[in-house]
Design goal:
With 156 residues, the chain is of the alpha+beta class. It is 33% helix and 22% strand. It folds into two domains: 2-76 and 131-153, Cytochrome c-like domain (Cytochrome Bc1 Complex, Chain D, domain 2, Orthogonal Bundle); 82-126, SH3 type barrels (Roll), CATH 2.30.30.100. The chain has helices at residues 2-15, 21-29, 35-38, 55-58, 61-69, 142-153, and strands at residues 40-41, 44-45, 82-86, 91-99, 103-107, 113-117, 121-126. The protein is elongated, with a radius of gyration of 17 Å.
Length: 156
């Protein structure tokens, strides 16, 4: 599996020079990629995922491809996903928005923030799975992926 992953990353890195940042920018903000629902560049996009305004200054093309194709491989600190179960047995998944002595506030993928009183909290587990969906390569072509990476690399 690790070998397949490296092979896939090498394949995209070989194509990286063909990436078009302008097309990547359009794709980043397009509904089919869903990137901007959770990620922000400059003042546009969501806040559920990390702000990518300066991502090109700190991540290589390989890092970007890995994050897009295998989002659960590495999760940025502060963006870890949690699975919370309350006393009724209802399960909720999201990011910890804030904690108080009385409650935990969880921001869900739909951006809704739910409050769970601590006395109703049954379990709180860090999920090994990122909220960022895997499988974007099933929606985006290889050219789309290299365009997206080209755009993110100029975000500095």
């Amino acid at each position: 599996k690790s070998e397949e992953r490296e092979q896939r990353l090498s394949q995209l890195l070989d194509m990286a020079k063909e990436g078009n940042a302008s097309r990547g920018r359009v794709l980043f903000h397009a509904s089919r990629s869903t990137c901007s629902l959770c990620h922000r560049v400059e003042n546009q996009g969501g806040t559920l995922g990390p702000n990518l305004s300066k991502i090109g200054a700190i991540r290589s093309a390989k890092d970007l491809f890995e994050a897009i194709l295998f989002p659960s491989a590495t999760v940025v600190n502060g963006f870890e996903s949690y699975l919370l179960t309350d006393s009724t047995g209802e399960a909720h998944t999201g990011l910890i928005h804030r904690e108080t002595t009385d409650a935990i506030y969880l921001r869900q993928i739909n951006q809704q923030i739910i409050r769970v009183p601590r006395e109703e909290l049954k379990t709180l587990l860090r999920s090994p799975v990122s909220l960022m969906p895997a499988g974007l390569e099933g929606i985006l072509s290889d050219q789309d992926l290299v365009d997206l990476a080209a755009y993110l690399q100029v975000c500095k």
